[in-house]
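Handout, section B. The chain below has 549 residues.
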Amino acid sequence: MRDLRHRSRDMGWILRGLIKTGGFTDHDLEHPIVQIVNTWSEWNPGHNHLRYVSEAVKRGVWSAGGFPLEYNTLSLCPGQTLPNRNLLAMETESVFLSEPADAAVFICTCDKDVPAMLMAAARVNIPSVFVLGGAMLPGRWRGEDVVCCSDWQRFDPERRAGLISDEEWSEFLECVLPCSGACGPMGTANTDQSIAEALGMALPGAASVPAVTARLPALAEESGRAVMQLLKEDIKPRDIMTSKALENAVRVLMAIGGSTNLVIHLIALARMLDLGLSLERFDELSRETPYIVNVKPSGRYAAVDLNRAGGIPAVMKEIGSLLYLDALTVTGKTVGENIARAEVKDRDVIYPLEKPIFPEGGLAILKGNLAPDGAVIKQVGARNKSLLDHEGPALVFNSSPEAYKALLNEDLDATPEHVLVLRYEGPKGNVMPETGSLPIPTRLAKKGVRDIVRVTDSRMSGTTSETIVLHVSPEAYVGGPLAAVQDGDSIELDVKRRRLEVKLTDKEIRRRLERWRPPEPRYNYKRGPLALWYQFCEQADKGCVYPFM
């Protein structure tokens, strides 16, 4: 057992004096310091309830003999891009370099802050527990549960086709964001939370708990006590987030049909841990791990229904034969011990392993002459499954504003066979925003078309489904083959064979790229965090991290 005198007794008089200005005493400073890293903010539903969650964590820490001190970070939710993930990871690491702590509790919910905190925990490597902000309840509209932003995407073509009136649309928008918590489907935020639990970094059942229920602060208090036990046993994040844990997390990602963004985030986390995790390994695990969780955007239910059905422990119990059950977790027990009593409580939500919704995982990795270093597709999200084996002429756009202007124009000459190509939106081209889910052309929406193949070097929101190929690497802006595509070129998508090809010879692609010049930079960032990004960011298949991270 560790000596619990720790850093608090080793601090100089200045640091001790600074802490005591908050009304604390020498008695408090005799206890191990637990840094409470909180992403609370009044700006967004993923974080606006986390102030009272941190108070629950502190109760747990105090009761177990620790001294909690809270620090608030960047709070990232709508419209935030990958640079802020890296910035938050580095900011969090920097805090621990200057403010000594013996253990940490990370309170986070959303798309960028959960992976950023995991990356920081891997770097800081002191006993740590993740407290997750939970899921938003669904709203109710036209007699069915609706969640942002999956149902917005589902109903938007109907609105543009004139099937939903402006008044009805306003009613829908009032319903779809009813309370605090991560957006209601298995989007990036709820996938992040699920993966944090699957990695072993959060208490069992933490990932999909409804944000507005009493269970969330109760879990937070339990987490405060748990981190003190980890401190006593000297169990650190790198003891938990091993290669086995990463593979467990990828399998859970595949089983829940989670967000494509987690491919980038898990690769980035693996690099922080000095471990290997390749795109090829994602695909190997996908081939072996069926999709079993019937949750939007690819399924029927909301994320809180997964909690009702048994949560991530029940999912892991169902796929237990595929997992490393000896992987360690923040409970101090193994995955196998944690899920021993888990059970599936609703088979409409969590399907049996032997009778899955889809025989492979939710995501697939593609390669070919259009994506030599890989691309990602959520194969279970295709509304028209025939599009997973499709060949059609390219319709090319060089920016998302250009694409939206054209696609919303009813005069656009587009057919259901077209493949929409959006480029120069990758890491170097435009900080890789979530612009990949281009809208169905209005002309086709009015004819009842609800899916069309799209190919892009950008990302998409995890709340999105449909047949969209993402993260094409290398991106067009650095001279990837996507830059050579012209209107009318034939593009073939064959998900079963994991191929993404443009029907051009290698010689023709080289010829076009020799004449190609990159477009003028979208933004001229010479200073600040985005200057750091443009100078150092790596491609999607490398996790979009900076080499020095």
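Note. The CA atoms of residues 398 and 423 lie 5 Å apart. Compare this with the example in section A.
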